[in-house]
């Protein structure tokens, strides 16, 4: 790490327009402060410290690239991207400034409330895909998308944060050294682990991992070490959704497998393609449940009519047998209808 003063000593410091009021957290990158302006607005000021010592030439090159990348991210203006409102350098550390909004990470919401309905998940995917594709059109790849950096705002809207952060860490890593670990790594694409080039399909891979987490609240790959998780990203097949939820459409397994193919060319090429496939799978599943319920209802009505006709005929052993059959049909079909309603509710509600 670069020499940087203790975090607590920065409280009361003014960085440009921001007065650092309090230290609100630390992560692998550096400290995070609550900052305020003369107008009374509050912001989060987040430092990014280089993961290793840089010589003067490397540091100058990094600072130049930092200003370029941060400027590109600050230019992103989209309702599903958390805006970067300012950036700069101080005492050897770079910092990013974002609004201090009432929000929680998507992983926090999942931990508290469990998986959303399939319909809500579809809406979430749509919002994330819109933000990603807008950034891709500007030539910016997220590189570290996960439920840790997708935020649920008070109005129910999602906003993606951390654009450019992973790229800045990569730029601060001298040639020949491994890129730093940052974030959960739950959607780290194989090409990133091989230190290859990143593109829109890198974010598609991570979006597949986000979808898996939304559906199950579990990560795609689990291991006691980060290295073990990375090895699975490189070589292991995706764990079936059925391990966690048997009520999900089986087609969703194939969608996530395609999104998380090891080779980028075999994945969905755009986030919106994943969203379209998801909506088709969920829509077919809901329609099938509705059709089966309608069929059960029709059979029930037929059985009731037959029973009424037999009761109106002269009593006989045949009529009695008919009534027993109709009663059995009524009982079984009612149970089938209730069961499918419950299953449909658990799948979509």
From TrEMBL:
Residues 295-321 are annotated as: Disordered. The keyword ATP-binding applies. It comes from Thermogemmatispora aurantia. The lineage of its organism: Bacteria, Bacillati, Chloroflexota, Ktedonobacteria, Thermogemmatisporales. It holds the Pfam family Pkinase. Residues 309-320 have a biased composition (Low complexity). Its EC number is 2.7.11.1. Residues 18-279 form the Protein kinase domain. Keywords: ATP-binding, Kinase, Nucleotide-binding, Transferase. This is non-specific serine/threonine protein kinase. It comes from the Bacteria. One of its GO terms (molecular function) is ATP binding. PROSITE patterns: PROTEIN_KINASE_DOM. InterPro entries: Kinase-like_dom_sf, Prot_kinase_dom.
